[in-house]
Specification:
alpha/beta; Jelly Rolls; nine-stranded mixed sheet; 847 residues; repeat; six-stranded parallel sheet; Rossmann fold; 4 domains; globular
Amino acid sequence: MASASLSAISAGGSYNILEDIKNDVEIVYFPKGSVLVEQGERNPGLYYVIDGFLDVSVPLDENSTEPNVLGTIPASHGIGASDLLGAPLQKTATGSSRSGSTAGEGGKKRPPNRKSLFLTKPGGLAGYLGTVSSYRSFIDVTAKTDVYVGFLPRASIERIVDRYPLVLLTMAKRLTSLLPRLILHIDFALEWVQVNAGQVIYHQNDESDAIYIVLNGRLRAIQESEDGGVKVIGEYGQGDSVGELEVLTESTRPGTLNAIRDTELAKFPKTLFNSLALEHPGITIKISKIIATRMRALIEDPLSDQGRERTAKGVRSKGSSTVNLRTVAVLPVTAGVPVVEFSSRLINALTQIGTPNGVTSLNHTAVLNHLGRHAFSRMGKLKLSQYLADLEEKYGLVLYVADTNVKSPWTQTCISQADCILLVGVAEGSPNIGEYERFLLTTKTTARKELVLLHAERYCEPGLTRRWLRNRVWVNGSHHHIQMSFRTTAEPVHPQARRFGSALKHRVQVLQAEIQKYTSRRIRQTPLYSAETPFKVDFHRLARRLCGRSVGLVLGGGGARGLAHVGIIRALEEAGIPIDIVGGTSIGSFIGALYAWDADVVPMYGRAKKFAGRMGSMWRASYTTGHEFNRGIFKTFGNSQIEDFWLEFYCNTTNISKSRSEIHTSGYVWRYVRASMSLAGLLPPLCDEGSMLLDGGYIDNLTVQHMKSLGADVIFAVDVGSLDDNQPQAFGDSLSGFWALLNRWNPFSAFANPPTLSEIQARLAYVSSVDALERAKTTPGCRYMRPPIDAYGTLDFAKFDEICELGYQFGKQYLAELREQGVLPVMEETEEKRNLRRTMAPRRASI
């Protein structure tokens, strides 16, 4: 078949294509059980079976008995419907196939949970569809017996297609003749939709007429409430589908769907769905399973929509949008920002973290080297878009580096192709709006935008981040503090000769800067304490955030028992576990803020011990007025703001004026930490913009659900709350105060003491928090920790060293058990990589 097609193409020419590929075809032997092509990987090329049999199969769930999406099993031995079936909406990260293996090297053994679709006999082709479409394989191809195949690599086919485009048309025509009627029916009814950035696909309350599948690009669904508020329902990347529930239930659209960037969609009409459901009921079953899975996720995570949690007024929403990010653009705020060096270090961190399907970066020079100098011309735009789409399909994450001037075609391409835009600025520079940002606002992109501030030293001046964020309302994501040594001003290639006066003035300024570096108390180049691990630097933290693999730390409230948080954080540091996001309640907000401030154990320990000393002093008795308590917290944090913390931080409070929980991610630290620690009856509420704020533990004492909504993959949740006395009570329908007093003083009484009025009030206050605590324990990815601190009271701050050591020993033991089980969320460094890192480390000059 292949030779006939190629001969027909070359009949009119003087050169036969077969002569061009005869040196590329290999005769390869695969032993029985070898895997030639795995589902989810790019097809390595064409396989022509010479002798033996190839088994084409699809992976199945362990308890699944469904044949495939359409409920049919093709019986043909050539290219059938099974190439298009299986699980087109799921991709699995797999290794490369063994296209050139020999006997004894026959790749991976086929797992048992596979369902065979058909056999490819001698004279048949395998990998035809993947070669023509350049899409990842939906099937597994394994050697049923010992088999000899003729193998033509995909690179050779692409070279031939570039030279003879008619070859691709001939192969596509041959493919249509092999496809069954069902696939042709679907292909005829499916609609290929190209939408531009910002374009609306459907509006809220529209009739549901189709299911949309994202082939390339990114979509965002938003929901408008009656009071004018807007809430993001979700974002959908490559391979995701939208609208199954509405089509299946024949309901209206729950929100408005628009394109974040230029997007390609496959529109699956409702009429086609209904006709296929009648002819093939398996489709309805598959769609029902997808919907049931999503509904179950919503039930298990009811706070993901943040319906009950509100952020403080004026605070940007930081809901997670890092799921299924495929493209990230690095855009400088203004000229002179070292985005090339920043991107290089970020790529190294992403590579070490291990992005699924790998990561690659693109800059202006790389595109020109691949496509030529006409890549950005009107004629070359089509080829450029195809090239970028192929890269997004090949790699798990593509990093676009805007290293050209503001209005260049490459800068426009970076902005239009991005799912997420990192605005990189120098923290010590001017916080004014840069020329790149002004150009960004003129585009139609609605991609998530995050601010990255580069610091030469590991220190952020109080109020610095607020000055950067004040006028940047378009920064709708997080902000990151990154330490990176760099040259603030570009060194000219041929420096001009300067006069004596200007040269002397410049020299004096350099000397003043050097003197200030050693005399300033505020600047620290490195943390005072840090465990030796290569994955805890700032670039790895940003890489984990982009990959959706952040590690969160949630600290609960419990008074002096919360001092155990200090010891547990120390144990986490020594175990080499990186912490990316910190959240806390009550005393957990205080300890969490101390750690997020510097991401350093030593200053956290010293400040926490000083505060515990103040709280444990008998001479400071005016805490009920709030003045002395405020003074102690202010002396700890000063004028620092939450935005200036090195790690992302939040704390929660209970707004008793509006009867809701509030999350605080900006503002003065001491105020919201004080509000989160305000127990009713001991401290007055904190007034904030007309509302009264109390301890956040009254609604949620362990904010695991909110941490999950921020995109944390692994969460360490430390619970130090008090345990209620659950002994059965049997004092009857009425209670005598005289009997209760005698029973309390009688050590031989067999009856449990009835709770006092204050104990009843305390239990009522935390009733709603109990349900949130139980959900937190069962949240996927949550590591629930409860140190043995029940013997300590809420006000035992004088026992700081004892409680801290108890938390440290418990943390070490708990993490050691996780390490033995092999579930410790830390990347272990092999001896080979450790030696390589040592050889690449900077060395002192030898004599």
